[in-house]
Specification:
Elements (H helix, E strand, L loop, with lengths): L1 H15 L1 H4 L51 E16 L2 E8 L8 E4 L3 E9 L8 E3 L20 E7 L6 E6 L6 H6 L4 E6 L12 E8 L12 H6 L5 E4 L6 E6 L1 E9 L6 E6 L2 E7 L2 E9 L2 E3 L4 E8 L3 E8 L17 E11 L21 E14 L2 E8 L11 E4 L3 E8 L5 E5 L5 E7 L2 E3 L9 E4 L3 E8 L4 E7 L2 H5 L3 E7 L1
This protein binds copper (II) ion.
Length: 502
């Protein structure tokens, strides 16, 4: 309590005198203003957020074409480079894009496929990588910060998609110190691995809804991160779906749709509900659940995905909207989380053709049992004033990330119990590379709860004051990252390295 009070008081004092702000320094960060997310900040910086058009027809993400001439191989090229987007009339916004689009092209491949993707880094003056978020790829193919691709260089990422790996993955940059900015400027795309035998009826379709977060200045540019962004993670002014604000979808009454929801924002927590439609959860980050689970609302923390079947049984308007979620906000300018309409579905009176029912069983999930090792990872935030300014620390087990340091040595093929303890004042979504894990327990305020269903996850929110226990097993050797997926926190050091040995 004391520390939190100190922080807010310190911020308030800093905000009252803009000159003092220039003295606030943080390691490895350029000069920045102290503005809050919505632009209610000092003097000349103040700008109202730009208004974006709404109600356009929902765009499908463009598919990345497979250039391989034979079955079983997915071969393509992804180029990261500067591009321009038109979010508002008559103004171009400079962005970063994969193959000219943001979100990047949708990659669809099948279990059993080999994937060979040539990454061309054409971002001027910046190294980058592609991290295959959630996917079981070898460590040296996973776009770690230790394996940068220099500006102007190409490299091939190659891996196999094992049987049973069907799921809703994504790809994004992971270079040292620049991940947050490259992602909020536009670099992220969905990678869907399809099952050879899929129990979900094809009549439901299969639609990716990728949520990103946009902040746009009046001149159409994306402002740099402020100190408030670095502390809380960047939360923009607009949540976009496949690059559009509140797009529209037209369906017939009785339609059922399979929707894959992706939180590809840097730091926005999305607590979501559908009005006038019924949600059923069928999958998590790493693919289908064992059985469908009805849900009135869902919480998607940054980097999480969820697979839904949504039934649109009532003619009229069905909207996907946000609910309030308090994830712990430091300083002024807490964004309004509730009441945003992300998607509007017009459901006509005309009945849809009869939809086949969702099966009662989707697939078996074998519980990971019998951990040989227990580990404890404690997340903390520290804050200190010193003569040169305010210093913030985002730490795991008291340490900030160091690329040259191995934090954990693990054995390939062994199940481990990881206890993620959040002793900080904000929620931190925990992400582990290279594998999918199973949450077994959550504890908060002395209350222990089992998760409502068994699921494969690669990202899990750990609320402030909460402990999450999970079982994990890395099948392959190599260096793997684990970190908070508020990307600004990852950049400030809330990341560690597990060296998996054969
Ligand atoms: Cu965090």
């Amino acid at each position: 309590m004391h520390r939190r009070g100190f922080l807010v008081a310190g911020l308030a004092a800093a905000l009252s005198g803009s000159r003092a702000l220039a003295q606030m320094k943080m390691d490895g960060m350029p000069d920045m203003d102290m503005g809050d997310h919505a632009g209610h900040d000092m003097g000349a910086m103040a700008q109202a957020p730009a208004a974006l058009p709404e109600g356009e027809t929902l765009r499908q993400l463009p598919l990345l074409a497979n250039e391989a001439g034979r079955p079983g191989l997915f071969k393509a090229r992804l180029t990261a480079e500067a591009a321009k987007a038109r979010f508002v009339e008559d103004r171009d916004t400079p962005i970063l894009a994969y193959n000219g689009t943001s979100p990047g092209p949708l990659i669809e491949a099948y279990e059993g496929d080999r994937v060979e993707i040539t990454f061309a880094n054409r971002i001027a003056g910046e190294q980058s990588t592609i991290h295959w978020h959630g996917m079981p790829v070898p460590a040296d193919q996973d776009g770690n910060p230790m394996d940068p691709v220099a500006a102007g260089a190409d490299r091939v990422y190659a891996f196999e998609l094992p049987e049973g790996s069907a799921g809703s993955y994504w790809y994004h940059p992971h270079p040292h110190g620049r991940t947050a900015e490259q992602v909020y400027r536009g670099l992220a795309g969905a990678f869907v691995v399809k099952a050879k035998a899929d129990p979900v009826p094809a009549a439901y379709g299969d639609t990716v809804l990728m949520f990103t977060d946009l902040r746009l200045a009046a001149d159409g540019t994306m402002p740099d991160n402020t100190m408030i962004d670095m502390m809380n993670g960047r939360v923009g002014d607009h949540v976009l779906v496949n690059g559009q604000k509140n797009p529209k979808l037209a369906l017939a009454a009785g339609a059922k749709r399979r929707l894959r929801l992706y939180n590809a924002t840097n730091a926005r927590f999305l607590r979501l509900a559908f009005a006038n439609a019924t949600m059923t959860v069928i999958g998590s980050d790493g693919g289908l659940l064992e059985a469908p689970v009805a849900a009135d609302e869902i919480l998607l923390s940054p980097a999480e995905r969820i697979e839904l079947v949504v039934a649109f049984d009532q003619p009229g308007t069905a909207t996907l909207t946000t609910l309030d979620y308090d994830r712990g906000w430091m300083g002024p300018g807490r964004p309004a989380d509730a009441g945003l309409t992300l998607l509007t579905v017009d459901v006509s009176d005309t009945p849809a053709e009869a939809m086949p029912p969702l099966p009662e069983r989707l697939r078996p999930i074998a519980p990971l049992g019998g951990p040989t090792v227990n580990r404890r990872l404690v997340f903390t935030e520290t804050m200190a004033m010193n003569p040169t300014g305010m210093e913030m620390g985002f730490l795991i087990n008291g340490k900030a990330f160091d690329m040259g340091r191995v934090d954990i040595v693990a054995r390939a093929g062994e199940t481990e119990l990881w206890e993620i303890v959040n002793q900080a004042d904000m929620d931190h979504p925990f992400h582990l590379h290279g594998t999918q894990f199973q949450v077994v327990e959550r504890e908060r305020g002395g209350h222990v709860a089992k998760p409502p269903y068994l699921a494969w996850k690669d990202t899990v929110n750990v609320a402030r004051g909460e402990t999450v226990r999970l079982l994990t097993r890395q099948e392959r050797p190599g260096a793997r990252m684990y970190h908070c997926h508020i990307l600004e926190h990852e950049q400030l050091g809330m990341m560690g390295l597990v060296d998996v040995r054969a």
